[in-house]
Amino acid sequence: MRRPVFLSFCYDDDVFRVQEIKKMGLFEGQPLLSTNEFEKIKRNGSSAIQNWIDEQLKYKQCLIVLIGEHTAKRPWVQYEIKKAEEMGKAIFGIYIHNLEDVNGYSKKGSNPFTEIYGYEKYKSYDPSHCDIKGLRAYDVISKNIQNWIEYAVLTKER
Predict the structure, then answer these.
(1) Full domain range(s) for residue 27
(2) Contacts from 27-32 at CB under 8 Å and sequence distance 24+?
(3) CATH number, domain with residue 39
């Protein structure tokens, strides 16, 4: 069963990596906004961005934070995490720095849950611990993401 999820990430740094994860077809996710679409929303101010996030999160069971080099410090990622928690959504993170994009690999970023709460309040999976230059990160994510989603949703329901 494909669960509906919301993907939280640093758009400027990681959109290519996120597209690769979406192409796996293993979950139902929100549409990825193009730069032009996001700019249209952004022109209407912070409340328009919040409304878009809130509306997208409303129908999702789980928030997945795709953690790149700068994700933890991004204000909208932090908002999405707090909002998902407020809405009672299942939450977890996946480090994606070892997925290659057009610029190669990035550095491992700090944990956004630690950034917000001072400790890793939610589970974060790091497929790079068994990786050499991205050779297996994609495979680890594709083979495990559905189980990670199920685990997060089922433990949240308990």
Answers:
(1) 4-157
(2) 27/2, 27/3, 27/145, 27/146, 27/149, 28/2, 28/3, 28/4, 29/4, 29/5, 30/5, 30/6, 30/56, 30/60, 32/7
(3) 3.40.50.450
